[in-house]
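Ticket #4471: complex job returned nothing on first submit. Input attached below:
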Amino acid sequence: MNMQTSQTRSRAGLAAALRVSISRLSRRMRAEGGHSLSATQIGALGAVARHDALTPGELAAHEKVQPPSMTRTIARLEADGLLTRSPHPTDRRQVVLSLTAAGDKLLKEERRRKEAWLAQRLAELTPEEQTILRQAAPILERLSHG
Amino acid sequence: MNMQTSQTRSRAGLAAALRVSISRLSRRMRAEGGHSLSATQIGALGAVARHDALTPGELAAHEKVQPPSMTRTIARLEADGLLTRSPHPTDRRQVVLSLTAAGDKLLKEERRRKEAWLAQRLAELTPEEQTILRQAAPILERLSHG
DNA sequence: TATTGTTATACTCTATAACTATA
DNA sequence: TATAGTTATAGAGTATAACAATA
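Support reply: We reran it on our side without changes. The output follows.
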């Protein structure tokens, strides 16, 4: 039994612990986010907010769904007054999506709720624990990119 | 501007960073878990594995869905040979759920895949970064309970 | 011809309401 | 009467296949 084996075992344990804690915390945050829109709708709206002037095809690719699925989501969001569809300036096949003021407001409110819940939980931690999470956040972020 | 305000701001920033990194990592892990079963089915099967001899009502409450929704999930898992329904020993209205050997095997395989992916990502971190995550895991776990 | 987006259709997951069997 | 579970039915989200409009 060598050092590598020991390290691997340790990493497997860490992976197991992280898998459980990340899954649970994510599920809990989702539950705390208000329920005015579904995860699908929030995801699409958020993507439009981040990359203004997306087309439906780009949005479907970004959210990893097929174009017909996104057509439906867009129709719903448009009917609810949260985004608008306008003609593409040069290509008449395409459509350009933008957030309405109501869409922008709703999105910010949704984020605010989740973060308020999380901030409240963080306030109950010791300063040392908060420091650990402050160091962990960018590492977790990088893990998802790998 | 006092100390409290500064701390609160800092916590809000940490909350925002954690929300994003937790959400992304959770989404990515889900995508890495093989696709033999849906999240719903894995969740139900996992709950039966953890609390053997659950009834459908208990399982629905645990997974936070309505009983008819769980009836359907159970029917599917039973048809796929992953769990069994047996009579309750004393109350003939109730039903007792247990994992089959195939269900147990599939569940372990699903977890193994997710953890293998995560362990591989962890292996790419420095020892210092791994130490930070090792300290962070139990804190994240507690956050979801609060 | 190729691309963009939509419509048609089907499957899964979820819900509420109504029903059956048992307590 | 109350409880456990199921069946009936409907809405949301997803997919593939087929179509229309435009490039």
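Chain B touches chain A through 47 residues (CB under 8 Å). Closing as resolved unless it happens again.
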